[in-house]
Amino acid sequence: MREGQSAVIYRADYQPPPFWIDTVELCFDLDPAKTRVLNRMKLRRNPDVPQQPLKLDGDELNLARVMVNGQGTSFRMEGSRLVLENLPEGYEPFELEIFTTCSPAKNTKLMGLYVSNDSFFTQCEAEGFRRITYFLDRPDVMASYTVTLRADKQKYPVLLSNGNLVDHGDLDEGRHYARWVDPFRKPCYLFALVAGQLVAREQKIATRNGKEHLLQVYVRPGDLDKTEHAMNSLMASVAWDEARFGLALDLERFMIVATSDFNMGAMENKGLNIFNTKYVLANQATATDTDFSNIESVVGHEYFHNWTGNRITCRDWFQLSLKEGLTVFRDQEFSQDLAGEASARAVKRIEDVRVLRTAQFPEDAGPMAHPVRPDQYLEINNFYTVTIYEKGAEVVRMMQTLVGREGFARGMTLYFQRHDGQAVTCEDFAQAIADANPQSRLHELLPQFKRWYSQAGTPRVKAGAHWDAVTGQYELSLSQSCPPSPGQPAKEPFVIPIAWGLIGPDGREVASGMHVLTQASETLTIPGAPAGAVPSLLRGFSAPVILDFDYTDEQLLALLEHDTDPFNRWEAGQRLAVNRALAAIHGSGEIVLDNAFIGAMRSILRHRTLDAAFKELVLTLPAETYIAEQLDVVDPQRVHAVRESMREQMATALQDDWAWAYEHHKDNGAYRPDPVSSGRRALAGLALTHLCIAARSSGDGVWPGKAYQRFKDASNMTDRFNALSALVVSGQDLARSALDKFHCMFKDEPLVLDKWFSLQAGAPDRGGNILPAVRQLMQHPDFNIRNPNRARSLIFSYCSANPGAFHRADAAGYVFWSDRVMELDAINPQVASRLARALDRWRKLAEPMRGAAREAIARVAGKPDLSNDVREVVTRALAD
């Protein structure tokens, strides 16, 4: 093992901390080159653990002084850890003082204390606090914090930290200070400070108990006009959490701060949330409907962490889904509740499931597969995954399904009664939900249900149907299985709630219910069913499983037309499209869409009562990555070609219908990002893209001209970007002019330029032109690989989101990938490790791509001094 490399951490090895830290007083003298940190802590030995030395975590710190109870003391270094042995005996508290310095300006990892645009920010989750001071950097050590910040007043007029501002004033030599006290004990990963040139939108609100609270959204000067939606989302979040779960805001103030340099989307530091600007800044000129929706969701997510993550936190990092899965579920419910009507709620549910199936299902089937509660890790940053978040949310959703909405609220109440102020486990949460509902199936099946936390992989449910003409009984045979995953060759049966319905031959629903599948195989008997009834299974996506049922085209068409469950109605359309794509891929590669499919799509598009947002979802073909997951051996270029051919045929066959849809949905009056208006814009954008695609085939310049005019005249970013995307995706000559004009219009808007880079890197590959374009864009004056957003917008959009262009027969895409992974690893290992995962599924590739991909991964794995972040990903990818 090379110097600096870490050992694998195992959940089974968890031990309580040998010391507790009761209070922490931090004093910062902020300077970009050399920040001084004085850390005074009161500690005591844990009486439940044998006495041992105190070992404090540290990383890239310069240690100047260590004192115990006011006296200098001996110490030694054990790697990067500070080890103290000469400590007071017994269990009485003692004071430890540590003085260190660090260089925030040189911190390109964006973990710990760093500088972005001449302002100071922190990111401490998961293990960033050790880059600020020596500490027991683990989530089960919870302390009370007092923080004093000192800095140049002119350069850093705003000084923020967690909790309540108790004192502030001027100092000598043009400096000033601010002192913050957090009234709640917290783990160090929730510590935060911000200092810089910032302005704030402020709003005072009153919670139901009559207490007044101050909400603040801090941004750089010039961005204040883009904060109204974030503030409205924060106010809605506060009101929703109190109304739905009785969880009130518990601080005098709640602050959000936005920075353009951030590894994640946002961070829920107690009372001082630090956000990527992508999830704060929005107005109609610079942000799309999707941006507005994402901001609402992420603001809600981070605020909801105030209770599910902060007030109750994780005992250890293996329990990460305790806070993340639960809080994703809460933000999904928040967005659905705000959407209001059933159709808008269904659209949100479909969008969430689409993410799960295109990102998490492949993860479950790949080398980085892990349970919702992992058993081991080398680098915890690699486990901030769709499995922890999205699949974890589905596990929580199944709990609500099994106990009911009111029962789940009772369970949440009991959870907080038992564990407020504690660091606990996933089992503690599940136990509280079950104990609050002793008559529920969850309580009855809890030991088995917990397998969702311990077993990796996506279960498959195979269903078959038989109708008895004599008795009129309809029998559904159900069986479950789960394929092997790393370290888990065999799986025990899961608890799988399956919502179901039966659609009669006349299109009416004749029966519905919920069946909880617990055995390897079971049979569900439904009396009184008519001949020809079609089963609608896994309604609302009631469990995160793959459903295998041999539907005929006629059955799928019936579900698409008549199913009362919106999710399964959408799913029927997806299955019809996937079946045709797979037939072409397995066959000659040529595809001719049949009249039945085209007619079904026309019927949806022209439907009088369906919402535009739902139509847009049905008419959007399954993603290439989702189609690829249905194959044992994948040629991504073949998949891309088949999907593009399907899209071209839909464009041509439905050209008049697309024109109707565009004309009837393009105008929505004054801009509002509500579900109805957003849905109309989405359908108009999809229609315009198809019209430009059809024009490319026919050579007609009318619709490209209309798209270009729409691009120039649009009154909001959604319509403008939809028009630009239509030109780029369809390969129109006007695309270059529109791209140049777009850059000139928004060259001073970083988040908009991210869209500009991303659109070009993710465009369909015609003759291998995308990789050269990406290489050229890396030389653009506005490209900066050190900024995570910009790196993701260009490099990730090509390597992770454009499989048809990335998986080249000449392996040039893989060479580019390996170069960028190694380049990023030297700058920011977290970003590099996420890029490294673009080749997780290399073993499914057809030759020669498979061999070339392996060679590229091995090239990265062989690099000396590789970070743990990247090393874990590539090592697991290569493991047999």
Automatic annotation (TrEMBL):
Identify the residues that the record assigns to the Peptidase M1 alanyl aminopeptidase C-terminal domain, covering every copy.
553-879
Coiled-coil annotated residue ranges, if any: none
Q: Which residues form the Peptidase M1 membrane alanine aminopeptidase domain?
A: 230-445
Q: What is its EC number?
A: 3.4.11.2
Q: Which reaction does it catalyse?
A: Release of an N-terminal amino acid, Xaa-|-Yaa- from a peptide, amide or arylamide. Xaa is preferably Ala, but may be most amino acids including Pro (slow action). When a terminal hydrophobic residue is followed by a prolyl residue, the two may be released as an intact Xaa-Pro dipeptide
Q: Tell me the ranges covered by the Aminopeptidase N-like N-terminal domain, including all copies.
A: 93-190
Per the record, the GO terms for biological process are: proteolysis
Question: Which coenzymes or cofactors are required?
Answer: Zn(2+)
Q: Where is the Peptidase M1 alanyl aminopeptidase Ig-like fold domain?
A: 457-549
Sorted alphabetically, the keyword list is:
Aminopeptidase, Hydrolase, Metal-binding, Metalloprotease, Protease, Zinc
What domain of life does the native source organism fall in?
A: Bacteria
A GO term, aspect molecular function: metallopeptidase activity
Q: Which Pfam families match?
A: DUF3458, DUF3458_C, Peptidase_M1, Peptidase_M1_N
Instruction: Report the CDD domains cross-referenced here.
Output: M1_APN
What family, per the record? Belongs to the peptidase M1 family.
Physiological role: Aminopeptidase N is involved in the degradation of intracellular peptides generated by protein breakdown during normal growth as well as in response to nutrient starvation.
This chain belongs to the protein called Aminopeptidase N
